[in-house]
Amino acid sequence: MPDRAVRIAIIGAGPSAFYAAAALIKQEDVEVRVDLFDRLPAPYGLVRYGVAPDHQRIKSVAALYEKTASDPRVRFFGCVEFGKHITIDNLRPLYDMVVFATGAQSDRSLGIPGEDLNGSMSATEFVAWYNGHPDYKDLNPDLSVEGVAVVGVGNVAMDVARILAKSIDELKETDIADHALEALKDSKVKNIYVLGRRGPAQAKFTNPEIKEFGKLETADPVVLASELELDPHSATTVEQNRMARQNVEILREYAERGQGDKARKVHFRFLVSPVEIHGDGKVSGIKIERNKLVSTEDGYLNAEGTGEFEELEVGMVLRSVGYKGVPVPGMPYDKRKGTIPNDHGRVLNPETGNPIPGAYVVGWAKRGPTGVIGTNKKDAEETVELLLEDVPHIRRAGVEAKAEQKLEELLEGASCKYVSFDEWQKFNELEVERGKPQNRPRVKFINIDEMRAASSGS
């Protein structure tokens, strides 16, 4: 075992990063020191910027991350951008091992004409806007339109459809960003179309997500009974899969309700694919094609177009058809999978197929964008187990007693005024205090300058 603590840098400070840090400090075989770096001033990644503001229970997992970050063996450095302020080359002399927890920061495109029109954007951008992500505060989506198409039937698609469908009374006591709350207050959206290319049995949303649409104050779910008819393969899926079965049952109950009498409608459409977005500079409609399901040799049900088309009058299109990782400076990249090439978490050199010594990956950057927040826990523990196995064989970084000083010098030299976890806790307390008069969990700061000004009383 080494004669000093093993120094580990984690790039990213979202769920997978914190689960990795927790696994590292929980084990007792190797003494460790862990530093987490994130380009944003606030930690927790998707818990803060991805989870819907009306799903506060899911956000409670941040309490576990806070416990990890408060451990004296762990430090957080916010506003530190990998590739700009720090690189793999200048971290190597300071750290024995580096773990990448960089997530899947980009989204997949539809690949259809009109996708670049004004009013066509990713659901990722829209979610970041209403959650107060600093990069998207000026997105300014046009909510004067009456129709919105949401392409995809996963939980993110459900989130954006629900936020668009909810009344201000339903949103005003959440931690939605103030700019989004103000914009949604004047929303003219009446019809929200949620489009799934396959059938209801293949929908990826969970039972609680679809159930919520039956309880909205000012919006009715609308489902066509004809689109709930199941082919033999789908019927088998529903029979064998509890979540799919319950989803179909809920959708059938919505179909029986009819149109309803509320001002807004959320139309759940299945077996349809967008083929073109129309508009003269700005979205004015979306053309969809009716699909049929065809079983492939490996048993996958593929959606194939039938040549029957329909036009939906919409002024905004939000695509939610999956995420992908982006290349990390100095690390290999699997373009097809959108991940860092790895073997159960050990980063691989794509030319040799061998592990790159001291380099590891966790979360979506490791396995792709699958699973929920909790899925990252087991995933991170798998990587950490391999990392600990490698400790006796790694090349040790040369800096020892002066490592912390050297890091400070490195960041100062890069003109990086980082945010510590103590500072973040002060900002966090201020956000919570700002929310209390409005009976909200918090009122978010959107950028670091705003945070620092508030904490100094200026």
What does this structure look like?
With 458 residues, the chain is of the alpha/beta class. It has two domains: 6-105 and 324-419, Rossmann fold (3-Layer(aba) Sandwich), CATH 3.40.50.720; 109-321, FAD/NAD(P)-binding domain, CATH 3.50.50. Helices cover 32% and strands 22% of the residues. It has 17 helices and 18 strands. The strands form four sheets. Strands 3-2-1-4-18-17-16 form a seven-stranded mixed beta sheet. The protein has a six-stranded parallel beta sheet with strand order 6-14-7-8-10-9. Strands 11-12-13 form a three-stranded antiparallel beta sheet, with no helix packed on it. β16 (342-343) and β17 (346-348) form a beta hairpin. α1 (15-26) crosses α14 (375-390), α6 (123-130) packs across α7 and α11 crosses α12 (242-257). The protein is globular, with a radius of gyration of 24 Å. It starts with 5 loop residues before the first strand and ends with a helix. The model has no long low-confidence stretch (mean pLDDT 94).
